Amino acid sequence: MQNPTSPCVPFLGRQTKTASELLHSNSLSLRSRAPPPSSINPPWPRIMLADGTGGEQPLPAHSADRKQHRRPSLSALRQKTPPPPIKLSPRTCAARGMESNNWARLGVACLLVAVVCCLSCAEAAAATRRVEVQRHLKRLNKQAVKSIKSPDGDIIDCVHISHQPAFDHPFLKNHTIQMRPSHHPEGQVLLDENKLITSKQKPPPRSQLWHNIGRCPQNTIPVRRTKKEDLLRASSMKKYGRKLQRTTPNPLSLQPDLLDESGHQHAIAYVEGDSYYGARATINVWEPRLEQGNEFSLSQVWVIGGSFGEDLNSIEAGWQVSPDLYGDNNTRLFTYWTTDSYQATGCYNLLCSGFIQVNSEIAMGATIYPVSKYEGFQYDISILVWKDPKEGHWWLQFGNDYVLGYWPSFLFSYLSECASMIEWGGEVVNLEPGGEHTSTAMGSGHFPKEGFGKSSYFRNIQVVDGSNNLRDPTGIAAFTEQANCYNVQIGHGGGKWGNYFYFGGPGRNSNCP
């Protein structure tokens, strides 16, 4: 006999009690005890008693009643005829079709709204950029006393010397312009910089292309006009006229052959370990081929102060080919400065406040001509940067005759005292187009071993010492990241060339894939 208190009574066949008797006999136990948790449903349905209580009840004892509660077999379910399809009236079909069309129209409307919003946002962004461009142009392009259209497409504005971009700097509002340095380095040797390879005929003098059309009057300076197209080539107004961060070659790195993460590569000669107050060099001028417009190639002098961290100070001058900056492949005179490793301070030429120009004949960023030809006439320019021992400003001289201007001493931290390293040489941007090394050339595009008339050179490299004297540097060393792409070869001579070196290369070649 089953235990009456059991919460689960299995069905054991025909029973002698009726359903009402079973309900009456088990009601107390069913009310007092909740069934145990189980994932298996009891084999009988739940019914409600007259008093509102419920209980689990076995199937009726009578065979007929049991048949009524028997679950259909799987085969019976499979044999059942599916219900007939629902027939919709034409009116219902039309209504549902209209509803579907309404949803489609709503989707198209939403898509159109999204497109209009995107176009509106794009137009607003374009309008904002146009306003930003105009504001930047107004800041850079000062009112001109005279304008000269150069044969290369440049416009040279002759701007009054007191209205130049330098005086936008808050610390220069009441600055008194120093028209000439108080002291010039002693011992400078004036050399005939014209070199021949195929003829004794003297090449024409180096000049700037805009000189063929006219000159600026006294008390003005020539400023290359910035055009809208120049700004639009830049990734942003903030980055226009600036180098990428950390582009100064660091030959003292623990991994000196490690390629610069920004793609910049170098082939240089350098000195360090002393206090330097300036540097000089005569630089062979070429027009190197570039593979991409957003790469560049240059030859320059670096005057460096501080570490190679975030506080690097650098003054730079030389020539460069940079379509991204100038819009063409012409060889151009340039300068650069930074006091925080190219992060937020400094710029090329006169594209920000800083460098104060006093010369009316040479334009920063203007085209230099003529340039050297392979196995042909060779042309070069002289660059001298030095610190005025009295005022502390860093002065720039182009050639033997043109003192161009100065960087005020307050701009710098480390260079407010002296430089700790001098570098001379070439630099290119290698963006590895197509996953290969760029074919952008450095210098002439030929390796140093080819020599004069074929490879590019620096000659008469000198430093300025603490007594404001030009002297030959000691301990000159060479540095390059990939000698099979761009190389440098130092020479020492006591003749007209003094200390010199050849440098450069073609970039991608069989040994530089």
Describe the structure in your own words:
Strand 18 and strand 19 (470-471) form a beta hairpin. This protein has 513 residues and is an alpha+beta fold. Mean pLDDT is 83; it is low at 1-69 and 190-202. The protein has a domain at 149-504. The strands form five sheets. Strands 8, 12, 14, 15, 16, 18, 19, 21 and 22 form a nine-stranded antiparallel β-sheet that branches. It has helices spanning 19-32, 63-69, 74-79, 90-140, 228-233, 323-326, and strands at 46-48, 54-56, 144-149, 155-160, 207-208, 220-224, 264-276, 278-284, 297-305, 313-321, 332-338, 356-357, 368-369, 380-387, 394-398, 402-407, 419-429, 456-464, 470-471, 477-480, 487-492, 499-504. Helix content is 17%, strand content 26%. It comes from Zingiber officinale (Ginger). Residues 20-33 have a biased composition (Low complexity). Pfam families: Neprosin, Neprosin_AP. Residues 34-45 have a biased composition (Pro residues). This is Neprosin PEP catalytic domain-containing protein.
Give the uncertain stretches in residue-range form. Answer: 1-69, 190-202
Q: What structural class should be given to the helix and strand makeup? A: alpha+beta
Beta-strand residue percentage: 25-35%
Give the oligomeric state of the chains in this entry, treating copies of one chain as homo and distinct chains as hetero: single chain
Q: How widely separated are the two ends? A: 95 Å
Mean pLDDT figure: 83
Order of helices and strands, N to C?
HEEHHHEEEEHEEEEHEEEEEEEEEEEE
Total number of helices: 6
| Main beta sheet strand tally, sense and closure | 9 strands, antiparallel
Instruction: Please tally the β strands and state the result.
Output: 22
Q: Based on CA inertia axes, which overall geometry fits?
A: elongated
Round the Cα radius of gyration to an integer and report it: 43 Å
Helix fraction by DSSP (H/I, runs of at least 4): 10-25%
Region (Disordered): 1-88
Biased composition (Pro residues): 34-45
Protein name: Neprosin PEP catalytic domain-containing protein
Biased composition (Low complexity): 20-33
